[in-house]
TrEMBL record:
Record bears the keyword rRNA processing: no
Protein name per its UniProtKB record: Redoxin domain-containing protein
Alphabetized InterPro entries for the sequence: Redoxin (IPR013740), Thioredoxin-like_sf (IPR036249), Thioredoxin_domain (IPR013766), Thioredoxin_ResA/DsbE_sf (IPR050553), TPR-like_helical_dom_sf (IPR011990)
UniProt keyword annotation of Signal present: yes
MF-aspect GO terms: oxidoreductase activity
Keywords: Signal
Taxonomic source organism: Spirosoma taeanense
Gene3D superfamilies: Glutaredoxin, Tetratricopeptide repeat domain
Thioredoxin domain sequence ranges: 482-628
GO biological process, one term: response to stress
Position of the signal peptide: 1-18
PANTHER family: THIOL:DISULFIDE INTERCHANGE PROTEIN DSBE, THIOREDOXIN-LIKE PROTEIN HI_1115
Length: 630
């Protein structure tokens, strides 16, 4: 019974003469067009969920922002019917496509031509732009691309030719689009033909406009003729000495100037000649950066103060001010820079592309960033009371687990200076309990606690240990998951002092190997942290740190010079042949390996994450865990 019904349905849906039909046959503006779509001979022939999409088109200047919209359709048997209204303004036709509503890329695009409904005048003649407007849909919008299709270059050329045959006076509107379509069509001999057409068109124009010259230059460039393109652009600059091209060249000259004093002069001249140029904001940001990089900080502040808020990069100023404050240089200027950034932030208006909620969140985040920098600048100048107040705006007690350990440290140190340690204590305790505290912060809290009534150094140590108990337990559990257990290859090396270092003599000790080279930036960056880790065990005879120089590729004197200059208290065995590094499977440096007292490799890490606190804590914990196993 079901099979018989299916046969009847198929028989009832035999193909008709046209897939897409509309009425009236020559629609005019202000009318409603009725259409019928029969999908049987298309790739949507077996689909039951079909939707229509349409886009209105007109002259090229009306195509910007042209977006397709859905059509309300009703199914009648095997057909789909619907209606489209033709507005009275700026519309010379409509293009329609059909697709599966649940699989949009499954679409009937009429072999890439879409289904066109041109608009006609009262005499039955297509309106101006009714044909070329279809080509504009293909060349000036993404409608076809978004639907999964590609325009047929031959069809596009034909549409332009038909339009210009009917309306020759539209040549100034479509000449460059028509020639660009021929370039994409790439018929044999198109190059000379198109170039001749460009020259003929420009010659016929007594005074070509800047837009026409721009189009000509773009056409030449698309064919690879950059000599002619440049000649046209030079002609544009003569035609419009203050135009976009002239501004672009002048802006590029400012950017390329290497002498700082000449760059400043060139910038000021550009600003005077083109005060409303779209290139000016970018140049202003570049000059701001230039003042900073040239360490011209006093003039940087004066320059920034003169700029409008629209040309001021708040985050750039914040970065500059923080670096100055952190390095203890130009501190008053650092304070002025961040104050200027805060003033600009308070005057900024919400962009239309950002929701009110997102804008409020972003502004709060930026305000905290600026206040953190402001507090740092004040603190470094000894203005601890003001710095403490500023840090209070930065610290969020309910979100300490996402705080910055260094900021927490500075907050408490300012609290100590202003006798607010008791007030800051809950925040610091939470920072320690959530792993957001530096070693210096922990030491500062411990030392302060030891001076409180009824307390002493021993009780302070117990207090700190209790605060760290949970987080240390979690970190130990995580470390246990990372621990390994492999035999440690035996080695014998000579260190920089000429002493023999052997794994056999180190048996019974926990040994930390740090494989490094003088040319390795991350290796050197990790040295301060490694020095701190080594100092933790400097009085422990059962722990040894060895900084194995490997992959050096140069004379041993280079290593001597480096270590003397850095004044590092390290034992440096030399592995110039890379024999030990290869035996330990070192693939990249720095690589840190920890060997337990039984001669087993228990821990390995490659690279340096840039966080000395994490490096020190992790290595310290590994060593302590291995010592406990003895």
């Amino acid at each position: 019974m079901k099979v018989a019904l299916l046969v009847l349905l198929l028989a009832a849906c035999l193909p008709v003469t046209a897939q897409f039909r509309y009425s009236p046959a020559s629609p005019q503006v202000g009318q409603t067009v009725s259409f019928t779509y029969t999908p049987q001979e298309t790739q949507l022939g077996t689909d039951s969920l079909i939707e229509g999409r349409f886009v209105r088109y007109g002259a090229p200047n009306t195509m910007q922002g042209c977006r397709p919209a859905s059509i309300v359709m009703a199914r009648q048997g095997c057909d789909y019917v619907g209606e489209l209204f033709i507005p009275k303004k700026d519309v010379t036709g409509m293009m329609v496509l059909f697709r599966n509503s649940r699989q949009p890329k499954r679409a009937d695009l009429n072999k890439g031509q879409l289904y066109a409904i041109p608009v006609y005048d009262a005499s039955g003649r297509p309106l101006p732009h009714a044909l070329a407007g279809q080509a504009s849909v293909f060349t000036r919008t993404n409608v076809l691309y978004e639907a999964g299709g590609r325009p047929d270059p031959n069809r596009v050329v034909t549409l332009y030719e038909q339009e210009l045959q009917q309306y020759p006076d539209l040549q100034p509107v479509y000449w460059s689009d028509y020639l660009a379509a021929q370039i994409r069509q790439r018929k044999p001999g198109y190059g000379p033909k198109v170039k001749a057409a460009i020259e003929s068109y420009l010659a016929a124009r007594p005074e070509p406009t800047a837009a026409e010259l721009t189009s000509a230059a773009q056409l030449y460039e698309s064919m690879g003729d950059f000599v002619k393109a440049k000649a046209v652009r030079e002609r544009m600059k003569t035609l419009d000495p203050a135009g976009s091209l002239a501004q672009k060249d002048r802006a590029m000259a400012v950017r390329n100037e290497t002498d700082w004093n000449r760059k400043k002069t060139a910038y000021e001249a550009f600003k005077r000649d083109f005060p409303t140029s779209t290139y000016l904001p970018g140049l202003t940001v570049m000059m701001t950066d230039g003042y900073f990089k040239n360490n011209d900080i006093r003039n940087l502040v004066a320059f920034v103060e003169q700029q409008p808020a629209s040309q001021t990069d708040v985050l750039m100023l914040n970065t500059m001010a923080f670096q100055l404050a952190d390095e203890r240089r130009s501190l008053p200027e650092a304070e002025q820079l961040v104050k200027r950034a805060m003033t600009v932030l308070n005057t900024q208006t919400r962009p239309n592309t950002v929701t009110a909620t997102d804008w409020e969140t972003e502004q709060k985040t930026r305000h905290r960033q600026l206040m953190n920098t402001y507090a740092r600048a004040l603190e470094q100048q000894g203005k601890y009371a003001d710095a403490y107040k500023a840090y209070q705006e930065v610290i969020v007690p309910d979100d300490i687990e996402n705080s910055d350990p260094r900021t927490n440290e500075r907050y408490f140190l300012c609290a100590l200076q202003t006798r607010h340690a008791a007030e800051a204590r809950p925040v610091v305790e939470a920072a320690i309990q959530t792993g957001q505290a530096t070693s210096r912060l922990k030491a500062a809290l411990r030392d302060w606690y030891a001076t409180q009534p009824g307390q002493n150094p021993a009780s302070a140590d117990a207090y700190l240990a209790d605060l760290e108990a949970d987080i240390r337990a979690e970190q130990r559990d995580e470390l246990r998951q990372k621990m390994i257990n492999l035999p440690a290859p035996a080695f014998t090396l000579t260190d920089l002092q000429g002493r023999t270092i052997s794994s056999l003599a180190l048996r019974g000790k926990v040994v930390v190997l740090d494989f490094w080279a003088t040319w390795c930036g991350p290796c050197i960056a990790s040295f301060p942290a490694m020095q701190q880790a080594q100092m933790r065990f400097q009085n422990d005879p059962d722990v040894r740190f060895l900084f194995v120089n490997t992959r050096e590729g140069g004379p041993v004197q280079r290593v001597h010079n480096f270590m003397n200059k850095g004044n590092y208290p390290f034992v440096v065995p030399l592995d110039f042949s890379q024999r030990v590094a290869n035996a330990y499977g070192v693939k990249g440096i720095p690589t840190k390996v920890v060997i337990d007292s039984n001669g087993r490799v228990r821990y390995r890490s490659v690279g340096y994450n840039g966080n000395p606190e994490t490096t020190v804590n992790e290595l310290t914990m590994v060593v302590e865990m291995l010592k406990e196993e003895k």
